Amino acid sequence: MNIGFIGIGVMGESMARHLMRNGYVLTVYNRTKSKAEKLLEEGAAWAESAGACARGQDVVITMVGFPKDVEEVYLGEDGILENAQPGATLIDMTTTSPALWQRIAAEAIKRGLHPLDAPVSGGDSGARNATLSIMVGGSKEDFEAMRPIFACMGKSITLTGGPGCGQHTKMANQIAIAGCVAGVAEAIRYGEAGGLDIINMLDCISAGAAGSWQMSNNGRKMVAEDYAPGFFIKHFIKDMRIAAEEAGKRELELPVLEQVLSIYERMQAQGMGDLGTQAIIEAYR
After folding, report:
1. Is 235 in a helix, a strand, or coil?
2. Which helix (H) or strand (E) holds 89?
3. How far is C-alpha 245 from the geometric centre of its chain's CA atoms?
4. Is the pTM of this model over 0.70?
5. Cα–Cα distance for residue pair 84/260, rounded to 1 Å
6. Of 166, 144, 44, 191, which Cα lies nearest the Cα of 94?
7. CA distance linking residue 119 with residue 136, whole number of Å
8. What DSSP line would sit under 9-65, residue for residue?
9. Helix 198-206 and helix 165-193: axis angle, to 10°?
């Protein structure tokens, strides 16, 4: 099966590599070609545009940065919808606006294409280890047909509903993470102020009801002041803004989300947008 993969970034490179290692034939495109060099050396073919990457492929996967990037690669001039062959499956694994994806999916269906929104959770480590959680929106038939592809990249693969439901599920995921990562930072800052051995504290409380992925992984990075991005602050801000916008449409009040978003927005204004989300500890320090 031939796959076009668009978006070779922190996570996209590992995801594409897993597909190649499982026997899929990949053509890749990225705005910065140098980021794809390793995959090209490993046997991927190069395309000069998103449209060229989609042309003649059985499946097209996108893993780009922001909603404007999703809109451009799908709906723009020389985009995916204009170039995908009838019957192809289009899988967007970016975290993007549910409303935008529903618009793209409706147009794709009109053209005889099979759209799936499939955002992921697990960060760079999940991408490297093929243990991502994949939240899929679309038809059951299309989901089942693509399950072997998803299985190359993730462990938890769930059909969440129709088009856009994968994105809504990812919004719920990001809302939960916002409170959790801030809670871990607050616990660490409290422990520091109390003179505790912070690793000892984390070992102790992570074994009980406070335990979480954020505590076990990002908590230790906070202690080590390791702010390398498994997931960029700037991308988390994008996700939280989408969640806040969707909540606003439904007249929901999500005060924890709004507070954590404001903390990260201040950090980005201070030039920290390219750090990992665990750098939130610096806002407390």
Report:
1. helix
2. strand 89-92
3. 18
4. yes
5. 40
6. 166
7. 7
8. STTHHHHHHHHHHTT-EEEEE-SSGGGGHHHHHTT-EE-SSHHHHHBT-SEEEE--S
9. 130
Positions of E strands within 93-163: 114-117, 120-121, 132-137, 154-161
pLDDT tens, position by position, 207-265: 999 999 999 999 999 999 999 998 999 999 999 999 999 999 999 999 999 999 999 99
137: alpha, beta or left? (left if phi > 0; alpha if psi -120 to 50): beta
How far apart are alpha carbons 230 and 236 in whole angstroms?
11
C-alpha distances (whole Å) from 237 to each of 97, 101, 163, 224, 263 are 13, 19, 23, 23, 10
CA–CA distance, 171 with 251 (Å, rounded to integer): 16
* Dist CA 160 CA 140 (whole Å): 10
Q: Could you give the C-alpha distances from 87 to 34, 111, 136, in angstroms and in order?
A: 31, 9, 19
Report, as residue numbers or ranges, the catalytic residues.
170
Q: What single letter denotes the amino acid at residue 55? A: R
Two tokens at 278?
């665990």
- Tokens 């992984």 identify what position? 217
Task: Tell me the DSSP string of 152-195.
Answer: TTEEEEEEEESTTHHHHHHHHHHHHHHHHHHHHHHHHHHHHHTT
Tell me the C-alpha to C-alpha distance, in Å, between residue 49 and each of 5, 7, 30, 73, 218.
Answer: 11, 11, 8, 9, 36
